[in-house]
Specification:
The structure is a homodimer.
Chain A: H1 3-20, H2 30-37, H3 41-47, H4 51-76, H5 86-99, H6 104-109, H7 114-135, H8 145-165, H9 172-182
Helix pairs in contact in A: 1-2, 4-5, 4-7, 5-9, 7-8, 8-9
Chain A binds a DNA duplex through residues 2-5, 8, 29-31, 39-43, 45-46, 49-51.
Chain lengths: 183, 183
DNA sequence: TTATTACAGAACTGATTGTTCAATAAAATT
DNA sequence: AATTTTATTGAACAATCAGTTCTGTAATAA
């Protein structure tokens, strides 16, 4: 990839994330993004078809980073706890959320980020589907699988949002415990 | 209230709901609303400051209708099941959702209705806070109250959305059972 | 060195929002 | 019934924004 392209792309992402931490997605205009990124209008549209695609690609990069670093962390902490336990995956996620790399938290708690939440849930769903059997309680065995997956994913997201909205006061371990208790 | 005012207000709501069943909230323009409602542009802005306020007031009317009719129904069906059971409240809600008065379902399952969901949850939260004690399991007793309330509310909303998205195939009784099982 | 590619910057169209105002029609008041 | 108040109309208006197009220029690759 051309060095110029890379720089422009990063400048756009940086500006976009800064703006996302200040206001809702729908309130942000292309004009604001290009002013802050200090690029030409035509350049923006050469990179992203619309604002929606910009968010989509940003999300994909964030999730790659989130899930990649999760796998690394899993190896690194292998001696601390059992990585095969379903809790470990979520504990890792909560830990990485706490770090707030790339201001992902603003996206989670914000009020007009339906699109972001959809992507987040899509990614989580894949993760949960693979591990579904480890969650099976006798009680929920007769429920449709898609319902169970949806419930786990939704509960994770809502737990994370509650955590963020209340100022991240609990430790990742504690919030994982909350999460597993209600589950 | 002036008969003229009432008529235009209803025409606006009717047009707005019809449009909401066709496309996302953010895609709907004021121009489309006034064309469909067959009123002047200035008239719209005499009634609603912005499109957001229109949605807000629509939601308030829908919730009044939903919760009012729920109370009536509660009396009407008192002989059928125990209304003090926490399940009955939610069963009523699921029943009224199934009727889909005023196309409320489109709002629930749609993709850009963060605003609507916020109002929905606010109303539900009040309901749940009053009945929280009836939900207390020993397991969740040590969790913060706001977390528990949030979890119940979120789970209800997500259950309803799953139900709607999957074509309302289950009966209200069945979906209430699903809901209470995962809870 | 040459050819290719990305960017700047400006101008432009079209859509949309929200406001204003004078004329008209409906409703309320006397 | 006559008068006053109020709501609506319809059109025109400015402002903002999205997305496109173009030319000249600078960076990169061949």
């Amino acid at each position: 990839m051309d060095r110029r392209q890379r720089k422009t792309r990063e400048a756009i992402f940086r500006a976009f994330i800064e703006l996302l931490s200040q206001k809702d997605f729908n309130q942000i205009t292309v004009g604001e993004i290009i002013d802050r990124a200090d690029i030409g209008r035509a350049t923006f549209y050469a990179h992203f078809e619309t604002k929606d695609y910009l968010l989509k690609e940003l999300c994909e990069e964030l999730f790659c980073h989130l899930f990649d670093s999760m796998h690394k962390d899993e190896n690194h902490h292998r001696h601390i706890f059992d990585c095969d336990a379903p809790s470990s995956v979520f504990l890792h996620l909560f830990r990485h959320l706490q770090k707030n790399d790339n201001n992902i938290l603003e996206l989670l708690s914000g009020s007009n980020n339906e699109l972001f939440l959809r992507y987040f849930k899509e990614n989580l769903r894949r993760l949960v589907e693979n591990q579904l059997s480890t969650f099976d309680a006798e009680k929920s065995a007769h429920l449709p699988e898609s319902f169970r997956v949806n419930h786990i994913v939704s509960t994770f997201v809502e737990t994370a949002r509650w955590w963020v909205d209340n100022g991240l006061k609990e430790t990742p371990e504690k919030i994982t415990e909350y999460f597993l208790t209600v589950l």
